[in-house]
Amino acid sequence: MKKKVLAVTLAVGMTAGLLAGCGGKKETSVVGEWSVTKIKMEGMDEAKPVKEAVEELAESSSGVTEEEIQQAVDLMSQITLVINEDGTMSANAGALGIEQDGTWEETDDNTYSLTSEEGDVLVLTLEGDELVTEADGEMLVFEK
């Protein structure tokens, strides 16, 4: 289970590392500070609140302590994304030490392209009051 919690934490951290975007539309509801509130990992049917998702992963393995579960929850909950009106943005994965700046643009109605300083692109979709990114069966859900 320790390996699964570590894998989840690393996957979320790597995704957060990609969250730096491309210059674009200035007035939009995506402007603001966003934090990860839900995740979906391989084997889950839907995105769940971070703590619930980590606990579900812990149940599928043995030997994971409550302290390790809380550490994983804390790490994932510290992932933030700040989208600025001027087309810039920054991502921070808290204790993982991942911080990136970049720019963003709206590529389609409620769809946003984020490009890291290294040129990696991540697509997010605004669904109601949630900003969602999904790839390879995994999902991060951000809320303001």
Give an overview in words.
The chain has about 140 residues and is of the alpha+beta class. The chain is built from three helices and nine strands; from the N terminus they run αββααβββββββ. The chain has helices spanning about 1-15, 50-60, 65-75; strands at about 30-40, 50, 80-85, 90, 100-110, 110-115, 120-125, 130-135, 140-144. Strand 1 (about 30-40) and strand 2 (about 50) form a beta hairpin. The termini are far apart. Mean pLDDT is about 80; it is low at about 1-15 and about 15-25.
As laid out across the biggest beta sheet, the strand order is 1-3-4-5-6-7-8-9
Average pLDDT, rounded to a whole number, is 81
In terms of structural class, how would the helical and strand content be classed? alpha+beta
- Head-to-tail CA distance between termini: 31 Å
Percent helix among the residues?
25-40%
Give Rg in angstroms.
Answer: 15 Å
Total count of helical runs of at least 4 residues: 3
Series of secondary-structure elements, N-terminal to C-terminal: HEEHHEEEEEEE
Secondary structure: number of strands? 9
Could you name the ranges where pLDDT drops below 50 across 5 or more consecutive residues? 1-14, 16-27
Could you say which overall geometry the principal axes of the C-alpha atoms support? Answer: globular
Compact summary:
The protein has helices spanning 2-17, 50-59, 66-77, and strands at residues 32-40, 48-49, 80-83, 88-92, 99-108, 111-115, 121-127, 130-135, 138-143. The chain is α+β, with helices and mostly antiparallel strands and 144 residues long.
